[in-house]
Queue: 2 jobs
Job 1
Amino acid sequence: MAKDLMKGNEAIGAAAIKAGCRYFFGYPITPQSELPEYMSRELPKVGGVFLQAESEVAAINMVYGASGAGARVMTSSSSPGISLKMEGISYIAGAELPCLIVNIVRGGPGLGGIQPAQSDYFQATKGGGHGDYRLIVLAPNSIQEMCDLVMDGFDIADQYRNPVMILGDGTLGQMMEAVEFNEPKKRELPPKDWATTGIKDKNGKKRLISSLFIQPEDLENHNLKLQMKYEEIKKNETKFESLDVDDADIVLTAYGTTSRIVSNAIKALKKIGIKAGMIRPITLWPFPYGAYEKAADSAKAFLTVEMSLGQMVEDVRLGVNGKKPVYFYGRTGGMLPDQTEIVEKVKKILGGEI
Amino acid sequence: MVEQQIIIAGFGGQGVLSMGQILSYAGLLEGKNVSWLPSYGPEMRGGTANCNVIISEELVGSPIVKEADAAIIMNLPSLEKFEKFVVSGGNLLINSSLISEKTSRGDVKAYEIPANDIANEIGNAKVANMVMLGAYIELTKIVAKQSIIQSVEKVLGSSKGNLIQINEEALKRGAESVKCYK
């Protein structure tokens, strides 16, 4: 299939429909509104349902319902809207329902701004909603990778009965790049023998989807079962890309749009004789801690670059585990990290100035 | 490596974003790597709009253009805002129909193109953007004119045959307008 030029937000929609998603519940918010707009136009053509809910809270609970009935379903929003969805996301994680949630992040906190940011990292990877739950968080850095991860994301959600989040940012949502839609690697997907389709189980029991376990023993057991699943996900799904890490004096870490700015900075550093490499997490949860084991021995220092004031840097510190210093550079509020400033920061770190 | 990083800026409604899209699509048709990044926000017709386009033989790194090989400037506020982003020796294309001021940069190659006047002569004020694009590809040869025309067909739809013709004329007139600089 020939490559097409697509806007990130629209490409997510196209990839979702190709992956068999037939239900979208959402509410518009900049900078992701092209995605619901695309779905409102395209889903009816394939017999799907697009519904603009009265609020984000309603939308996420519609996702809960559709997923409970076994449908392939998604929602999308941007930061403040995702905050509103958090209660529902915790319920979905608790009830072990598969779905895809897209967050095209903008600056916060509060109503914040509408320009790109990465300041929802904590919310995406460390909870956000209540309880001991995990989202599988995928962080693409190009429109092509966004399509690939959306398509695979639905399968990952089904395989583990777990909500999957695509964490983008305003730049990725708004920009256009060439895309082609590739079938994801084939996964063995379990039958949805839990879905509330009106059918009783073989033993005549009614199917029930709930996150309520009133007996503490039952709730503890449920949580232990969830943890076992999370361990399995860590083992199987952790994904990252490394660039020139082996002989690097300094290893930078960045994800999403920022990783592309960092890759430019690394090129500029090479030109002045500085050996720099990059670890780019593709799954933010599970975080690729293992990628730092060898690098913490070979590199002299680490630098994390984010469009926030320091969130993922905490995971990098856990990965490096005190073996080497971990520095941080970030811009926030919709401002983008600057390639030259990254280069300057690296020079200062390696020159012993900070 | 052949790479062009371009800033296109002007009023909303001048076809600034579509100019960038047409250029990007033309690059894609030629098998190049491209990115198109618009400014977005609480913007409206008459407000400012701009986009960053990168056309490269290599994978595109950051889609954000801070050091532009060229800037296509459609109105005065954009000249003031974006002329500083052009690299020394880069191309600065100025729509002189709407901008009477000169650039303050002495180290760039400035081209004054009366894009609106040319568009009006052709008979459609809306193709001023294509006049600028014609001038730009004449100067850089980053994509072939034919690819731009194919790209216009894709963006406008092939049913708009008459519009294709006028766009083609606009590209030609734009190219002619910068030949005197050579």
Job 2
Amino acid sequence: MASIPAIPYQSSWRSRLVENKNFLGAVFMIPAAGILLVFLAWPLLRGIWLGFTNATLGREGRFIGLGNFISLAQDSVFWLSVFNTFFYTVIASVAKFALGLWLALLLNHNMPFKAQIRAFILLPYIVPTVLSALAWLWMYDAQFSVISWLLTQLGLIDRYIDFLGDAWNARLSLIVANVWRGIPFIAITLLAGLQTISPSLYEAAALDGATASQRFWHVTMPLLMPIIAIVMTFSVLFTFTDFQLIYSMTKGGPVNATHLMATLSFQRAIPGGQMGEGAAISTAMIPFLLAAVLFTYFGMHRRKWQQGARDD
Amino acid sequence: MTDASNSAIPTRATGDSTGMDFLTSLPRRVVTVYIPLAIFIFVLLFPFYWMTISAFKPNAEMSSNRNANPFWIVSPTLENINHLLFNTDFPAWFWNTMLISTAATFVSLFASVLAAYAIARIRFKGADQVGGIIFLAYLVPPSILFIPLASIVYELELYDTSWALILTYPTFLIPFCTWLLIGYFKAIPYELEECAVVDGASRLQILVKIVLPLAVPGLISAGIFAFTLSWNEFIYALTFISSNEEKTIPVGVLTALIEGDVYNWGALMAGALLGSLPVAIVYSFFVDYYVSSLTGAVKE
């Protein structure tokens, strides 16, 4: 449509090239494609390749086949990190979803200062994770923890809790901090989804005698499902590959008890210098990420289908 | 577009699910809505209160006896802030972070505007597939890329320079910004562009003089989001930068302020507070843009 009014007095090869959609599109794509190819696609492929070499920091390395994967398969720390990654992802995602949805439903009520409340609630999400993790680290301090202080004053405990010194305490403490940071994103995006649900649907359901819980399960949830699928895929993906929170709070300790696959790959590759082994751990994460991506893909199709496929 | 959606939310909210709120009595609402909400707000904001109050606490009060009330400061001090600003490299980290975030945001916006315009409006062959690939790029997490990227950065001789971060941050910013801007560009009527073509404008002129001015809300949303994401980035900054004065705030505060096992909590909390303030201030001015980009990215 845009190429119809061709300028008559100028039909050299040059002007025709400029009017050619494919040529123009390609030119406009150059900056984005250039950066993404050099700094995203290339490292992605190279990372997989590195996983099959014995490269070290500063040395190219050579192909050693499945060597890294075979040694990882016999490495109990690696399997512990796999267990931790799944434990962390599953527990944190379920908790974030339940609390995030609850908060979204609360915010969907009519109340004074709603905009201000929404703005404050997003704060944990926008503040740099490392910096808020430091606040949590201080709150989890073995000697001066404010949480322990409060619980002691209330008479609930008589000794200060060793939040990060014990394996299971540390895992759960990290999950709490991760959930704290993840709730706002889920609550605000689900709230946006809730606001697109027409109130007349609730009124119709109420007139038909549906109770509040029936209205929730049969009106709210089905209509919210597509956006839940997408939000939770993002959430699962970012929890699964989390690095910052663990690194800034425990660095994988005590004694590797809280290493996730991402922190272990960093540990092995950068301070440890074993680039090949670190890359092999990263590569081992890819199948799970692909599964999550496929989930999003089908989630979106389901959404298109529900809206009568006029999503464009 | 943002204006429309922003004004739509409050008006709709008044007659929302809330439409039936008059059926529930006030005491019931207090128990089912206000008390849980108050607990949520308290828990979500408490770490910030704790961060702030610790930043102004003298060391003596920080580790005082356990009977003292830790929620208040008896004699506030600027000692921690002072130490941070004059005895550490914090000011250098601050300027590094500012420079890197701003530069990465502009690089990303430039590349994303062109890409989004090409995908949404030029409609070249395969535009939809390219859009899909860019969306997939958004799902590739930095924590599986940093190892190979470290060797690429090293080979390009960018190691330990700001350029290493300015060029790698766009890998997670461009997919997001492009995706967001496609939505904004699609909302601009074709007729405006057709008129400009009739008047003899080139594609570049159309983009700069017609499309961009109409997509300003989208540019602001994408820009703010890109800026905060760059400000918060950690793993690349940790891996690609080694010298102290080249670090960014998150890396500097975490690696240089903690000396061995000695935690100087006052200075750490002051660093966390001052490092969070710039994003919090930017955010407070553009909350609506921020929310619309957050929700827009998911809805698209």
